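FORM 7B: Structural annotation worksheet

SECTION A. Query
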Amino acid sequence: MSRVRISRCGVAVVLVVATGGMYACAENRARFEQRNETFEVDAGAGTTDDTDPPDCRHQCSLDGRSIIDTCTDTIVETCKPDHVCGGAACLAPCEAAAADRHSNGCEFYVQAPLFRQNNYSPPIPPSCFATYVVNTSNQPAEISLELEGKTLDVSKSLFRTTPGSAELIPHTGPVAPGESMILFLSDATPELASSLKSHLYYVACPSGVVPAATTDRLGGATQRGSSFRLSTTMPVSLTSIYPYGGAKSTIPAATLLLPVATWAKENIIVNGWEMNVYGGPSAQIVAAEDDTEVTIIPRRNLQNGVGITGGRAHQPISYRLDRGQHLQFVQDEELTGSIVTSTKPTTVFGGHACGRVPAMAPACDVLMQQIPAFEQWGSEHVGVGYRPRAGNEHEMVPYRIVAASDGTRLDYDPAVPPGAPTTMNAGEVATFSSGTGDAFVVRTQDVDHPIYVAAYMTGADGDGREAKNYGGRGDAEFVNVVPTGQYLNSYSFYADPTYAETSLVIVRAKSRGVFRDVWLECAGNLTGFKPVGTRGEYEYVRVDLSRERGSGDKFDAGVCQYGVQRMRSEGPFTATIWGWDQYASYAYPGGMAQRKLVKKPLVPVH
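SECTION B. Predicted structure
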């Protein structure tokens, strides 16, 4: 038995106590390092009378091809050619990805954020909806797409791009190892599209693209809907964007998609922003299995919708979903902090029909993020913004924190940002701002007091007060801030080629007392990291992948540009991509672990 000590530092250690055993390879190139925010194992203890011998567990090798002993680094087992290491075992690739519990996977569900703005505005039309698919395995990946139980033809919907170019090249067949594709999911029907040519918010798919599905459904309020099911034969990283098309879309929203294998039975609704005259907060609850009973305990009255009966605040109300169905809620009163439980695993997407960030900004944007399950929330986060749009490192970046437990105490390093909360109770949401370069760490007292944190970009025209006018550069955006306990050490993701500016933000954590090199394919090992706070636990650096529609930063190893990005390290880090253009922006994490960090159930079992 190994000696365990309580720790709040959140730094990586040699071994940790984890509910799922040793976590292993993030993809074929590198493994991620298991981190835990509460318990760490003192693997360095000797074998004297007052200590126990170290707990020598197994984990995956750096290349994911074998299992190694954690104390001796010797190979215990070499995986067969068609297997990889996952969860300290040699498994089929999709099984290994599921065992590792991270954002790479083989089964996903996704739907467009078609939210009706309000009763006074026309509904948002169904524009071009797409996903970026990156094969993170070392074998070709076949893609299948379903909607309402029917397999869709994607033979004319799959395209590739070359680095630095937005030109779409038709593709058929599997996605090669390490490569990326754009899969166009849906667009308006030809009849509807012809009537939408002058619509401000309608963006058609590019010429030559035949989307896998067409729809005449306009943006809706509270109602039921159907989600796309995307499955692959090998693990992939998947991101959705709506609408596809860069600046001309004016209201884009992107999200990292989380595989079904990481869904859970306890979730908390997080809306994108507060109500405004242009639209309301929204959420979508998705089921992956038939006969799934979903129970919501809303913090505000749940308003009636199309075929959906609402309910009173704080009173449980249940709905039944089948595979691929979702419940969509769009209403004036925020549901952030509302508890969602289900008889089978589900997931929540949070968003907004058209969020004004900050509240008095003149323009608005569609917001959407897939929210990690409650058990994956963390007790420590690092806040740092994108490259400032006008060169001012104090550019206002709003943050929102949602608490899951009563009596949550928040500590900040180096200092409490103006307006930031220091205590919160379950379901409460707090909004504050910090400069894009004024990085900070926020942590709570323990893992049983987890929080959710989101970061934002303000509207391009400011609000005439604290938020500055950026002359049309960027617009309102909303992105998950990855908890430090969910950092990986390998990522593959795609940078959209239709945006003028693309900023990659990297935060690394100490591993065994030192900061490890972070390698980016276009740059080599990154330099120029800056400290976050005063405790010396985290550092950040930014890399431009594009500037003014051209190439990004130049390094001895190469030039950064649009397209697939590959990163790795021997230590834990996170990478968030921000893209913007004239009155348009998007953001998403390049990936994340989805380990079970929270031990206490959200709803007590009686």
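SECTION C. Observations
The two ends are 33 Å apart (CA to CA). The longest helix spans residues 93-100.

SECTION D. Sign-off
Analyst initials: ____
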